Amino acid sequence: MPEQLDLNLLRVFDALLREGGVTAASEHLHLSIPATSRALGRLRRAMNDPILVRAGRGMAPTPFALRTAPRVRSLLDEASALISADREVAIADLERTFTIRINDGVAATLATAVVEATAAGAPGVVLRFVTEGSESAEALRDGSIDLDIGVGDNAAPDIRTAVLYRERMVGIVRADSPLGRHRRPTLRQLCGHPHVSASRRGRARGPLDDALEAAGLQRHVAAVVPTFAVAALLVSASRYVGLVPQRLAEQYGRTLGIRWFPFAADLPEVEVRLLWHARLDADPAQRWLRDTIRDALCEPGGGKSAGAVRTAE
């Protein structure tokens, strides 16, 4: 008769995949090593797969286990939400890892405030930030990620979304750049300097180019980098002009020795949104995390630096 799966076995499976071995999983689950080993044997029989195989001194998950892990995580989240619905959760005693997909421009200004606020309320919670690979909602559906923070919306009926804040893009230059002497350089002045473009997809063109084209102008993009953080670092060590979120420029301008300025063009604002799956609406722990993220943005200095450097008059 085939081995039957239950929630306890699925919890062992989840711990084995997260911890990467029997010993670490047993510590996480507060089980003995022999008990965890026996549970792994039951999982192997039930799933007809080795789950973990020896790899050097450690163990590595099989392709089947890697494919199955997000679905198991999702089932456990749903079970947790069902059991804890309408119940109070002791946040201070919460021990849970939340995986948050986030783009670098948002992470650079949001992560610090959110980590500090989370640690203050729930020291046992771990926030695991992962970079954007794609904006697919499947990762929210299968439980690979708990929250998605970034630009854009998702119209899927099972995905919940809320606007965290609206962001405008600003120009940055090194503090000693000639452009740094102007509070609001003209578009023609901007075109007299090489530019660095930040694009995860390697694109050199963006909304600024449309504005320049409408004015009969064209800029020279000398470099394309994958993230806004890299663009800021490159600008701080070169004569390039960069385009980054205003919060990033404000928070790190003085540290990096760069100045920021608004563009003399009507560039569209960017909406930064928080997304999660509908099944976690009623999960008190995730609801607390969503509220904590929103509150961290409302705190004085949340995501900003009081010592930001703007261009001179």
Keywords:
313 residues, alpha/beta, 41% helix, elongated
Topology of helices and strands:
Layout: H1 7-19, H2 22-29, H3 33-47, E1 52-55, E2 58-61, H4 63-84, E3 96-102, H5 104-121, E4 125-131, H6 138-141, E5 147-151, E6 159-167, E7 169-174, H7 187-190, E8 195-198, H8 207-214, E9 221-225, H9 228-236, E10 241-245, H10 246-256, E11 258-261, E12 270-277, H11 284-298
Parallel strand pairs: 3-4, 3-5, 8-9, 8-10
Antiparallel strand pairs: 1-2, 5-12, 6-12, 7-10, 7-11
Overview of this protein structure:
The protein has 313 residues and is an alpha/beta fold. It has 11 helices and 12 strands. The strands form 3 sheets. Strands 4-3-5-12-6 form a 5-stranded mixed sheet, with helices on one face. A 5-stranded mixed sheet has the order 9-8-10-7-11, covered by helices on one side. Helix 5 crosses helix 11 (284-298). The longest helix is centred in the first third of the chain and has 22 residues, at 63-84. The N and C termini lie far apart (80 Å).
Give the total of beta strands.
Answer: 12
Which parts are unreliable, with pLDDT below 50 for 5 consecutive residues or more?
303-309
- Report the structural category: alpha/beta
Order of helices and strands: HHHEEHEHEHEEEHEHEHEHEEH
**Hey, roughly how much beta strand do the residues contain?**
15-25%
The whole-number mean of residue pLDDT values reads 85
Shape: elongated
Estimate percent helicity: 40-55%
* Spatial sequence of strands, sheet with the most strands: 4-3-5-12-6
How much is the radius of gyration in Å? 24 Å
Main sheet record: 5 strands, mixed
Number of helices: 11
Alpha-carbon distance between the two ends:
80 Å
